[in-house]
Amino acid sequence: MYYLSTRNNKLEESFENILFQGLSKEGGLFLPAVWPKINLNEINNKNYEEIALQIISPYIKQTLSDENLKKIIDQTYKNFRKKNIAPLVKIDNNKYILELFHGPTFAFKDYALQFLGNLISSFLENKNKKITILGATSGDTGSAAINAFKGKNEVEVFILHPFEKVSKVQRLQMTTVEDNNIHNLAIRGNFDDCQKIVKKLFVDEEIQSKTTLTAINSINWVRIISQTVYYFWSFAQLDEKTKKDGLSFIVPSGNFGNIFSARVAKYMGLPINNLHVVTNENDILNKTINSGLMKIDKVKQTYSPSMDIQVSSNFERQLFESFNRDSNQLVKLMNFFSENGYQTLPSSIIADIKKHYKAYTVSDLEILNTIKLFNEKYKYLADPHTATGLKILEDMNDSNINISLACAHPAKFGNAIKKAIGKDPIFPKDLENIFDKKEKMTILNNDLNEIKNHILNKI
Ligand SMILES: *Cc1c(COP(=O)(O)O)cnc(C)c1O
Questions:
Q1: What is the structure's pLDDT at 237?
Q2: Catalytic: which of 109, 165, 199, 412?
Q3: Strands across the sheet containing 155-162
Q4: Which of 113, 191, 307, 412 to mutate to test the pocket of ligand 1 (most atoms within 8 A of CB)?
Q5: Residue 185: pLDDT band by 50, 70, 90 thresholds?
Q6: What's residue 201's pLDDT?
Q7: Residue 235 confidence (pLDDT) above 80
Q8: What is the pLDDT of residues 85-106, one digit of tens each?
Q9: Strand pairing partners for 96?
Q10: Is 142 a pocket residue for ligand 1 (Cβ < 6 Å)?
Q11: Distance CA 136, CA 194 (A)
Q12: pTM (two decimals)
C-alpha cells in the first residue's frame, strides 16, 4: 500500500513517511492508493481489538508486521474503561447510540489518538529520533493528544487552542498536565485561526529544517483509519436479523474527520445506507451539501465548542473522491476557495456527495431541549455534541437501523448540562482531580511569527 495526496495523485509515499508528515508538500491530505475490502463474515465474531487489527493492517502491513500491530492495539485499548471499548446502546426501536467516551480523556478522540501515540512511539524506538507534534484543538483533540504523548521524551508537543473558547474541563484537562514535553498555547482567536497557523507552520521551511513536524489533527491518516474501526464494531454488535438491510450513522461533525472515517468503512464494504452529517450553528457543511455553496462565515461560539469550525479540513478528502481523484480539478477548486472564501461546487460533485450524505443543522436551543428530552424520556444524559445527533435520531422515522454517535462525556460540558436539566452532571472519579491542580499555558496573539518564534525557542 502506498499513499497519494489530494493535491498530487501521482505521489507514491510510504506509510512511514505519511505518518510523520502532516500535509503533502503541495498542501494536500494523504489517502491510500486503493481501498482494501473487508469480508463481513470475518467481522462478526471478533472483539474490538481483533477488528482493529483487521481494519488497520492492510494500510500498514508493509511497514509494520501484524504481530507488532497487534501488540500496539492491545496496549492501546486495555486502558479504556469499558471492556467492550465502544458499547452500542439501544434506546428505542431501530435507534441506537454508539458510546465513544470511555477512553482516558472522555471524548471519541481517544480512540484514535491513544493508538497514534503508541504507534509513533514504536516507530521512534531505537531510532534516536526526536519529533515535534503540532496541533490545533477546538477542545477534545488537545487533551487526547496530550494524554497520549505526555512523558514521552522523544516527542515535544505543542497544542494551540482558542483562548477562552473551550470549556473549563477541556482546558484543565490540557493545562494541568505537568510533563515538560507538553506546551499549551492559548491563541487570541478562534479554532479556525489556530488551524490556519498550524497548516502554515507545516509548510514553513525554517521549522521543517530544525525538526520533524508531525500532525495529530484529523488530517493525519492514522486518525481517520483508527476511527473506521468502531463503525465495523457497531455492525459486529448487532444480530444478523437486525442488520440485514444495512445501517445508517448520525455523526456530530466539525472537521469532517469522524464522518469521513464512516465513509471509509463504506468504501471497505460496510453496508451503510445513509451518513447523516450534523452541524451546530456553524453550518457550512450543511449549506455546502444542501446548496453546493461552500462559504466561510464567522465562527460562532456554541454549547458544542468542539464543532465550532468553519473550515472542515477533511471535506477535501471527500471532494477529491467525488472528483474521481482528479487532483488538478481539486487544486483549482481549493485555491479559489482559499483566495475568495467561497466556492460553488459543480453539480456533478454535489450529486455524488448527496448519494451518501444527508446534512442538518441543530441550534443551541435545540441542543438544550434535546439534552432535557433524552434525560427525561430515555434516562440518558448526553453531552451537547452528542445531543446534536440525538435531535436527528429522535426525529428519524425511516426504517433504517440508525446509530447516533455519543462523542463525549456530559461532565466535560457542565455549563450546558446545568442549563438544560437544572443540575450538574455527575463527575467520573478520573475527572474530579483536575480542579485542584496547577495550570500551565502561554497566551499568545493570533500572529504567525509570534507563535513560530515561541516554538523555535523551545525545540
Ligand atoms: C472533535 C469532536 C467533534 C467533531 O468531529 P470531527 O471529526 O471534527 O468532525 C464532535 N464532537 C466532539 C465531542 C468532538 O470532540
A1: 97
A2: 109
A3: 212-215, 131-136, 155-162, 182-188, 442-445
A4: 307
A5: very high
A6: 93
A7: yes
A8: 999 999 999 999 999 999 999 9
A9: 90, 403
A10: no
A11: 6
A12: 0.95
Task: Give the three cell numbers for residue 290.
Answer: 444542501
> CA 186 to CA 193: how far, in whole Å?
11
3-state helix, strand, coil in the chain (%, to 5): 45, 20, 35
317 lines ligand 1 (CB under 6 A): no
Query: Is 254 near ligand 1, meaning CB less than 6 Å away?
Result: yes
The alpha carbon of 93 is separated from its chain's Cα centroid by a whole number of angstroms, namely: 28
Nearest CA to ligand 1 atom 15: 140
| CB environment 300-309: b (16+ within 10 A), e (fewer) | eebbbbbbbb
pLDDT tens digits for range 328-374? 999 999 999 999 999 999 999 999 999 999 999 999 999 999 999 99
Q: Give CA–CA dist 307/140, Å, rounded.
A: 10
Q: How far apart are CA 296 and CA 298, in angstroms?
A: 7
Instruction: Reply yes or no on whether the pLDDT at 203 is more than 90.
Output: no
Query: Ligand 1 pocket, 303 CB below 6 A?
Result: no
- Residue 109 annotated among the catalytic residues of the structure: yes
Q: What is the DSSP letter of 434?
A: G
Query: 9 CB contacts (<8 Å, ≥6 apart)?
Result: 325, 326, 327
Report CA-CA distances (Å) from 146 to 106, 373, 402, 410.
13, 34, 33, 20
346 vs 250, 319, 351, 352, CA distance in Å?
A: 26, 11, 9, 10
CB 329 within 8 A of CB 160: no
Q: Is 258 near ligand 1, meaning CB less than 6 Å away?
A: yes
User: In this structure, is the dihedral angle defined by the CA atoms of residues 408, 410, 414 and 418, taken in order, positive or negative?
Assistant: positive
Distance from the alpha carbon of residue 254 to the mean position of ligand 1, in angstroms: 6
Alpha helix stretches (DSSP H) within 203-314? 205-210, 221-237, 257-267, 284-291
CB of 275 closer than 6 angstroms to any ligand 1 atom: no
Kindly give the distance from the C-alpha atom of residue 306 to the centroid of ligand 1, in angstroms, as a whole number: 5
Return the SS3 of 122.
helix
From ligand 1's centre to the CA of 126, what distance in Å?
A: 34
Lowest mean pLDDT among 97-106, 199-208, 389-398: 199-208
Q: Is the pLDDT of residue 269 over 90?
A: yes
Asked if 1 contacts 15 with a C-beta cutoff of 8 angstroms, the reply is: yes
Q: What's the pLDDT score for residue 25? A: 87
